Amino acid sequence: MNEMTTIARPTTLKDWETDQEVRWCPGCGDYAILKAVQRTMPEIGTAPENTVFVSGIGCSSRFPYYMETYGFHTIHGRAPAFATGLKLANPNLDIWIVTGDGDGLSIGGNHTMHLIRRNLDCQIMLFNNEIYGLTKGQYSPTSRVGTTSPSTPYGSVDRPAQPAAFALGAGARFVARGFDVSKELPNVLKAAHAHKGAAFIEIFQNCIVYNKDVFEDFAAPKGAEDRQLWLRQGEPMLFAKGTKGIALDNQELHLKVVDVVDGDWEAAGVIVHDVTNRSVAHMLVEMRFGEFPMALGVLYDDPRPTFEADVVRQNKAAAEGKTADLQSLLKKGQTWTVTESGPEL
Which of 34, 95, 255, 297 has the most CB atoms within 10 Å of its CB? Predict the structure, then answer.
């Protein structure tokens, strides 16, 4: 858990709400995500004065205005760069990055990748609505093939990026998935905050105006148990009220759906979820929805030393036994004295 999370006073939901008018389209999934975050913050035990929300550009990037914390509404795709500077300047800050599928994977894809591989201690919430909402509905890096939009009037022919696969490929040590109105989202956020390092959370989010109900095939409440696989550490990968599960085909080395008879999941070969198994995490991300359920929850969690901790350790070692002396530094090597007649060596 982050070093500064133990505080003397408890907080409530009201401590995290601002007096700003929340301005998203009526019915936008961002409202549900905002409320989930505000309700989660008191439970993880952090403090508003030690918390910073950093965003780029997009609908999701209005988030810092609605959290009673420090906040930076930065420039398109560059939230990871700002967050890195903040964390290096003050490693005790609890930093949350809010981005979208366009902001974080298009113009900001390179910044997101480097923040993840460096393993900066922060939480990255990527709101994925598979569309550019703020700029009026153009297709995004995660839009599905065939998506019609102002920029793809005949349907997109691009193969979409998968945010969770991108994060794993960039070396992420924590990858999770949730969706805006899920009751499980706070638990995903808590797990991300407990992870020491860069925690990447893909949050499927409904854009009521430009991509309405694009995730309804798995997010709709009716029949959800047949279409959602909620992963929990140490528990078998079961869905459809325990009548089906995910097993590993040892010959083909890929996942498959199996029937579970009379609750005997072991006989069916159902896998027990191990959050430290990177190979299985990759397979869960690549599961084709329809043939498989949507894998949700914590897919991967295997911490390693953080970027800012290594930087602090390196700086401390470099300064060991040395006294800061600005004048000596300035006089080191060649120096010039400026006189009326000009510089003298």
Answer: 95
